[in-house]
Design a protein that fits this description.
By secondary structure, the protein is of the alpha/beta class. The protein has ten helices and twelve strands. The chain folds into two domains: about 200 residues, Rossmann fold; about 70 residues, no CATH class. The protein binds adenosine-5'-triphosphate.
Length: about 325
């Protein structure tokens, strides 16, 4: 197949007064052209940090940034800011950060905000950019006269559509969406999900969809990566993941989701996610794991290959 993005042993550590936070600790996965992955996990597991590490959008307190991010054959983790801005960010990968709809500039009209990436990253003239902005805003389901409105004149769902239009306007190959529906009511959430599905189908775009809501992720993803304490603990195709989750953490995550179709017992995951400054030795999940064995407390499990495309980081599946 045609690999679009390959993330290899990516690490992003932060330095703080309390110590080094290992937010992304050796994450690897790949996606083919047009394929999508959902990265799921509890709050604080490192999902947003992973998104920023892929784009090399690093805060000032970085302690370590390491690994490879190979996009369309080029390792973009080695590029400098100027190269990333001119050739990669927006043009090849767009990023919709958490709560992006609230970060639209309140004093600039929607249209002027939409054309910015085209002018700065794609070299469009203003007239060409306006034409494209009108086309895009209509495509995401907003009447074109809204390009002359200010963000406060739009509902939350409309602002999220504007953000999606902005992410798509430069025709990137990959869009990273960090909790794209979490601030919206359920009906608007469903509408935005439908829009994202349509975009995917029509434009053949790849998504990296970051969420703590695994039920939502099931709608969009071909693959699922479960993050726990900075590491991927299960990587699988979506069908296998939702029908036969392997890692005890994945099983607990899935059984904590209520379902309208089945009468099932809802369980919750006891305890809290570990500190990323002093994570537990061995498997980072062992203090919360109902199946923890001796080895889990001592040695970190490797990512074990179960079948093609299905990996799990758990001693229950072999090893020593
Ligand atoms: N700049 C930073 N400096 C220090 N620690 C940070 C920084 N950014 C994030 N962290 C810490 O890194 C860990 C991972 O955070 P991150 O936001 O990546 O997780 P997340 O899974 O996306 O969580 P959420 O869903 O709540 O956003 C957390 O412990 C967080 O407090």
């Amino acid at each position: 197949m045609d690999t679009m993005l390959q993330v290899e042993q990516l690490k992003l550590y932060y330095i703080t007064l309390k110590g080094v936070v290992r937010a992304v600790d050796g994450v690897s996965f790949e996606i083919d052209r047009g394929e999508s992955i959902a990265i799921v996990g509890e709050s604080g597991s490192g999902k947003s940090s992973l998104a920023r590490a892929i784009l090399k959008l690093l805060p000032r307190n970085v302690f370590l940034y390491d690994g490879k991010v190979i996009l369309d054959g080029e390792d973009i983790s080695k590029l400098n800011e100027a190269e990333l801005n001119s050739r990669v960010r927006w043009s090849k990968i767009s990023f919709v950060p958490q709560a992006a709809m609230n970060s639209l500039n309140p004093v600039i009209k929607i249209g002027d905000q939409l054309i910015e990436p085209l002018i700065y990253h794609k070299g469009y003239s203003k007239d060409e950019a306006i034409k494209k902005a009108i086309e895009m805003i209509t495509y995401v389901g907003i009447p074109n006269e809204f390009i002359n409105r200010y963000p406060f004149e739009l509902s939350g769902g409309m602002r999220q559509r504007v953000i999606i239009a902005m992410a798509l306007i430069t025709e990137p190959k990959i869009v990273i969406l960090d909790e794209p529906t979490s601030a919206l009511d359920v009906i608007t959430q469903a509408n935005i999900m439908n829009l994202l599905k349509r975009v995917r189908l029509e434009k053949g775009i790849s998504y990296i969809f970051i969420t703590h809501d695994i039920a939502l992720a099931s709608d969009l993803a071909d693959k699922v990566g479960v993050m726990y304490a900075g590491k991927i603990v299960e990587l699988s195709d979506a069908d296998t993941f939702y029908t036969k989750p392997l890692h005890p953490y994945s099983q607990l995550l899935l059984s904590s989701v209520p379902s309208l179709r089945e009468d099932k017992n809802i369980t919750y995951i006891k305890g809290t996610p570990p500190s990323l400054i002093n994570p537990p030795p061995g498997c980072r999940f062992h203090p919360r794991c109902p199946f923890a064995m001796d080895i889990c407390r001592r040695e970190e499990p490797p990512l074990i290959s179960i079948e093609k495309g299905v990996y799990v980081r758990c001693w229950l599946y072999g090893g020593k």
